[in-house]
Records
---
Amino acid sequence: MIRLYRTWVLAVTALSLAPVTGAGQESLEDRVHRILTETPLIDGHNDLPGLIGNLGTPEGDVLTYDLRVRTTGDTDIPRLRQGRVGGQFWSVHVDVAHPRPAMKQLEQIDIARRMIDAYPDVLEFAGSASDVERIFGAGRIASLFGIEGGHVIENSLGALRAFYGAGVRYMTLTHFSNTDWADSGTDEPVAQGLTAFGEEVVREMNRLGMLVDLAHTSPETMMDALDVSEAPVIFSHAAARGVADHPRNVPDTVLRRLAANGGVLMQLFYPPYLNVGVDSTATIADAADHLDHIRDVAGIDHVGLGSDFDGIPSYVQGMEDVSTFPALFVELARRGWSDEDLRKLAGENILRVMRDVETVSMRLRRQRSPSTKTIEELDGRR
């Protein structure tokens, strides 16, 4: 009788420990849906305000591009909801060739503001990590602003502060061309990284609480910024050079330093940067390969998402618009990423970076006043 009882106990125990199968098993899709319901998916880069600004109407009439219905671009409200987007950094991009970049930058911020105000039941401006969490908890999409290219400050730290006051929470130090104080990854190097004024820009961004964005910069600029920054940095939309050797991507040497810095690389979805030399096509597996590599080199705490939707002319197969983010999570879940891993990728990592940047800012604001240094003073420019 005792032997029979033991056999029964062992059988029951084995059944209780076995994975659930059949109708009770959570599918990968259901698992992803659960995770993205609990954790805000925060995309680091979407160019929708620039697209609206280029419609040809005076200063970009946001109402001519109705986000409540399917648009001709990559982004609208139904697809944002389908993609489980909980937070969005809207890129307020200004062309490097614009003759009045600071003025144009203010207009782009105004367009983004009016776009948010047009849909108050769906979008809400967020200026901090706590704002993002509160807005997501209320069922709306937290909307943040990111400047793409430091040329718009026109070598003025006062302008930098004004843009922060207008709601900008990150600035990409360069775009495709160099600034007067930082080298781009896709231009001929001049400064060999950051100039003395460029270092002062990074220090003032730390004091303000503005995230230092190293997407588009040269490896030398990346390294110099990591030397100077007292706060975690981000790459708002980039990929891993160890997987695809493209100048827009981040070398492993920088990824290892990113881990020590506490920053995050937000993975973009532009095929030529994901799969170099293969007829400019890429699959979800290619995007996942980059994320696997970033995780393996820098660590799981340093990955994020930065799509570049509405700013790219071609797409990863199966990731053609903002509705498709869950498909990438399903692929990563299939590869063995845990729930914790997927939550960190979705939004926990960038929220932690934002909180750390805010903490550093509070300390630095107590320690020093706004910088009044000029490029003429620091770099000898006239």
Note: Residues 34 and 321 are 21 Å apart (CA to CA).
---
Amino acid sequence: MNIRKALAAVLAAAFICGAAASCSSKDKKAPDKAASAEPTTAPVPGVNFDEAVGVQSGDAYLAVVDTNWDKQYLGGTDEKNQLCYKAGVVHIDGNGDYKVSVTANSTAFQYLASGDPNGDYKVNGIGFAAVIIHDAESVLPNAIITVKNVKVDGRDVELKKKNYTNTEAEAVRTNIFNEWVSDEFLPADARAAEGGLYVNFDTNSPSEINDGSYSAQIVDPAEFKDWTDIEVDFSISGL
């Protein structure tokens, strides 16, 4: 890992922890920090920067960071969110089924990643992935996210464990792959459609459904080597 990527990894780790990269495994969580800035890239012939997609209050999106902590989408449209182009964002307007996605198949991303708007650059793995509902602590505080299916380049990925929902940084989220949260230290407000994972938010009192089957790492990151598209189908309940 070169110096630039190492620095990016440290900064991203600090971002995912929500405060500092030195946080313990008990509280290493990735908050929602969707940027509101407009794309800052100057016009380039053959490149469509108008395909940048940002999120608004109540929108769900697929937050993704690659293995190198270099290419990412965290809901913003600034230069740090290279995967914002053609991102599949959906507004949550009630209980039901929804889909979010990210893709490397855009002229803007290909140009930023490889210098060629018609290139075939593929994203290298995942260092973090989650479905996040922006600003949901205010507008959809009772939302519960249940992941139904994850696809990489049209291929179904095995869900190794069950996902849970929690609230942090003013957002409601479910982790798909977050190595900063261990199965032994899930958030106190972790919940599923069947109920809370802890009694009265006490992490020393697991509920009946908290049988070890819930995790912040529900997929094998090896399934995401050199990808172009990721799609996540999920349902919303509790509203």
Note: The chain is about 10% helix and 25% strand.
---
Amino acid sequence: MKIGIIGAGHLGATLARKLVAAGHDVKLAASKGPDAVRDRATELGAVPVASAQAVQDVDAVIVSIPLANIPDLAPVLAAVPPEVPVIDTSNYYPMRDGAISALDGGMPESVWVSEQLGRPVIKAFNAVLAHTLAARGQPTGTAGRLAIPVAGDDPRGKAVAMALVDAAGFDALDAGDLAGSWRQQPGTPAYCTELTVEELRPALDAADQARAPAHREALIQEFIARGDTATHEDMVARNRAVTAPR
């Protein structure tokens, strides 16, 4: 497939590397323009482009930028054909993004993203740490392969996203419609807990929408306080412990 990725941070760059390795053609864009991402894109095997070029002549667009910056992309994505799925990897962290009243009131993050962009999105790759994505992928059919939830309202777009999840080395689990995508947001048992597909479904079902924001804030404050001493394994273990169903 031809894929445009907007956002060259940890997650976007890791996705670029994984999808190039899987044989896909990837264009990579960053907010500061193609020159700012040129060396990084070349290293990853992707083509550095401006955001407007990243969405031209592609089979899918992946948006991997801070949630607060999502509205800035609406003009860029306006020309993307409706049949091209837009995959949203963002998460809401008020400390970084500022308070967003609709999200604080319970609107699922990707529903808000869809409203800001003026088009539906598919929620995927948000519930996995960048290190997990980079280092824990395995070939299709491997026992104990980790899974990633994918939510959305368009079956075709969801199928594209699920194929990319598989290409990245993970089982894709259909997590239902976009309205229910809060079940894979920060502070839930499915978020950054490294589960197999058999474990992920019960985790999604056990999510508590009322408790998730408090879990999210407790975890981020803990990781900030620990600084560089928190290892990847610590992060996964603490997400599991704090968000475990009660």
Note: The radius of gyration is 17 Å.
